[in-house]
Amino acid sequence: MAQTGEMAPSxxxxxxxxxxxxxxxxxxxDVDRRPGLPARRARVQAVSDAGGSVEDGSAYAAVPRxxxxxxxxx
Length: 74
Hints:
The chain is an alpha+beta fold. The protein has one domain. It contains two helices and three strands. A hairpin with a 2-residue loop joins strand 1 and strand 2.
């Protein structure tokens, strides 16, 4: 049986960055992942949820929150 509501396991989330200059990235948000979306679509949605726009020509990165935490430990 599938879990719903507050008892459902977390779908994780993304840390969203925008490239402001070559090789220089700015944090624009930390958003929850929307369940049910394939990985690529979930990343695009994360950029949108964080206030960015994939179509505006800027470069964005949506890094899984779990990977961001591991990287910060170095």
